[in-house]
Give the backbone structure.
Amino acid sequence: MADDKREYIGDSKIHQSLAGQTRGELNQPSQAQLRRAKAQAMQQTMFAIPIAQNATVSPEQQERKVIYDLEIPQIYNFRFAVRQLKLENRRAEKFQRPLSVLIVGFPELPLIKDKFSSHAADACIKEIGKALVEYVELGIDIVCRFADEKFMVVLPELNGPEATMVAESIRTHFEKSLVTYQQYKIPIRASIGITCFPKHGQSWKELVAKADLAVDLVVESGGNAFRFGPL
């Protein structure tokens, strides 16, 4: 009886030991569980990062990204400028109000890039943007980059003679000014094409196209001048 008891006790200890080991294994997370937990943690981190970044973007920064040119912060980007030009075109047509478009070309910019550097050309472009906004009223008038060496200026409520006054002021400014880049003083000249609604076209596309053509004709004639687009 004692032997049976000892055998039973010993057997119970073995079972207890095995049971404890089994419970310990059950309490240990499996490899699948570990992988699942790791994936969830990574997913939470991935989703958390953009939220934290977006939270740091102010409304002013978001507005600047949508409206203004990223390289020339003083002027509008092309997409926003065209959107505003379309609205001004519709308003001019509906209420029969004047509207003028200037395309301002700087044919020296590619030469400056080749002679000095792309950084020198970029410096000239930024100075051009700063200068153009001095001759318009932002919030009413529109200035944007039109092409590599061209800018667009939209003048709501200005007729032909008034637009020529703005064009001559811009031309004179660049005729008398030099852009400073490092030790260099770089001259740039403005060639300007002008179109007016409704004389030169009914649609904004026609106004822009004819003003652009006028710039090319000015450049072919030697530049540093302005002229109206074809009727």
